[in-house]
Design a protein that fits this description.
474 residues; Beta-lactamase; Lipocalin; eight-stranded antiparallel beta barrel; 18 strands; 28% helix; globular
């Protein structure tokens, strides 16, 4: 009888979480809802739409991982399913985890946030120039993307390609496929995202400890947080290949060789699961609240989560208004996002194995946000304007910026296709005769006319981003 009672109590405890997970799976939301129309979408349908074979989700509530689920397949055309234990490439979410390791070395006295990194770099040094004579590169600058360094990101190395050493990558020497990491703006003068800075940090951590980076990160962070399904080893050890998701192109085709190799480990090389990344997020929440110091002290956690150069803290993006911290990731064939809230014990991690997974991740997070009452990741509701569709033909054509945008009118509807949005066209919905919006991405499109009334350009305004102008060329 006691066993039956125990089983019933376990089932009762798990049932609310199962219900919430199910509501999220069936309640994905676009960035914009059209007033008067249902907008909820099913995860399986959206995976097919974006040609993303596999998704893994972990949701944090009450300061713990409330539920974690895997969906779809490790590889398109295969039979192996994604589970909560499936490893994905974390891409740039590697940065905040590596940053926590660097901050642990600061608290051990092996590094200093504000000294010239060249004092402790041995295997390679930041080349000096007129800018570095005026202001030195520091670890604080590396972590907050304020060091004035070049190289935004990395495409990795496909199967069969030679992989450079870290020093070769830092100097842009063959077989490296990225440019040399150099200071070209005054350190500390502005924020500019630079994966190259994390290459410098990786070398710095290696030089001051004399340890291989994957071993060092296991010792400093992964082991202490119970992130047992995570590794910075590059290339991925063969023993883990069977539990790793294959990356996929926007067409849904698997990447040749399944995935790329990233010697830029601190910037892009972490293999992990949403559950392990959720453990990292929970520890950051707990440390900030003064309730834990497994890796860094509460005082250091407060520094990590304080805006240095907006929008960055030390290794993580922070939003003081909503007390949100987050980081996204985009490697070849993988897209993912980590979100957490300070003082709320809430958050989520979503990982996908497709190049078009970014929009899918956002739709999943909006579903989570509604279910759990998050303060942001909200969906906007807009009313459609009554516009004569005959005017759509005047907007059709090609618009040129640093890429070509194609606008087409078909069966009383207007569509836009642009490389940043993927290979498929997206529908434009009217707010006025010249103003439109997209549902999934919440991009506002304005058509601009000349004094004769002919369309001369369009302006695309992404949420929170810089407006882009494209001149009509045909």
């Amino acid at each position: 009888m006691r066993i039956i009672v125990l089983l019933l109590s376990i089932i009762a405890a798990a049932w609310p979480q199962a219900g919430r997970a199910s509501r999220v799976e069936n309640g994905l939301l676009p960035a914009v809802l059209i007033k008067g129309r249902p907008g909820e979408m099913k995860l399986a349908d959206r995976m097919r739409h974006y040609k993303v074979p596999g998704v893994s989700v972990a949701v944090i509530d009450g300061g713990r991982v409330e539920w974690a689920r895997g969906y779809g397949l490790l590889e398109a055309g295969g039979a192996a399913p994604v589970t909560p234990e499936t490893r994905f490439q974390a891409a740039s979410i590697s940065k905040p985890v590596a940053a926590m390791g660097a901050l642990a070395l600061v608290e051990q006295g092996k590094l200093d946030l504000d000294e010239d990194v060249n004092r402790k770099l041995v295997s390679w040094k930041v080349p000096e120039n007129e800018l570095t004579k005026e202001k030195k590169v520091t670890l604080r600058g590396l972590l907050s993307h304020g060091a004035g360094l070049t190289v935004h990101g990395f495409r990795g190395y496909a199967a069969g390609e030679d992989v450079p050493t870290l020093v070769q990558a830092l100097d842009g020497q063959k077989p490296a496929n990225s440019a040399a990491v150099r200071v070209d703006i005054l350190p500390g003068s502005k924020w500019r995202y630079a994966g190259g800075g994390y290459n410098v940090m990786q070398q710095l951590m290696i030089d001051v400890t004399g340890k291989k980076f994957p071993d060092l990160m296991r010792e400093l962070v992964l082991g202490k947080l119970g992130m047992t399904q995570s590794t910075y080893e590059q290339p991925l050890p063969q023993a883990l290949a069977a539990v790793a998701a294959s990356g996929h192109r926007g067409s849904g085709e698997p990447i040749k060789g399944k995935w790329h190799t990233y010697p830029e480990m601190a910037a892009a090389g972490l293999w992990t699961t949403p559950t392990d990344l959720a453990r990292f997020a929970v520890e950051l929440q707990q440390a900030y609240a003064g309730k834990s110091s497994k890796v860094i002290s509460p005082q250091m956690a407060a520094q990590m989560l304080r805006t240095q150069l907006a929008p960055s803290g030390l290794g993580i993006v922070v939003n003081a208004e909503t007390q949100r911290f987050e980081h996204g990731g985009a490697n070849e064939g993988f897209r993912c996002q980590l979100v957490g809230y300070l003082g709320k014990g809430q958050g989520a991690v979503v990982m996908t194995n497709g190049d078009r997974g970014g929009a899918l991740v956002s739709e999943i997070l909006r579903g989570v946000a509604r279910e759990y009452g998050w303060p942001d990741y909200r969906t906007e509701e807009r009313a459609l304007a009554e516009v004569n569709p005959e005017i759509y033909g005047t907007y059709s054509g090609e618009y040129k910026t640093n890429f070509t945008i194609t606008v087409t009118a078909e069966s009383g509807r207007l569509y836009l296709q642009a490389p940043p949005l993927g290979p498929e066209r997206v529908e434009l919905f009217p707010e006025s005769e010249t103003g439109f919006f997209t549902l999934s991405e919440n991009i506002k499109i304005t058509f601009v006319k000349d004094e004769r009334g002919a369309v001369k350009e369009l302006i695309a305004q992404p949420p929170g981003g810089q407006a882009l102008k494209a001149a009509k060329v045909k």
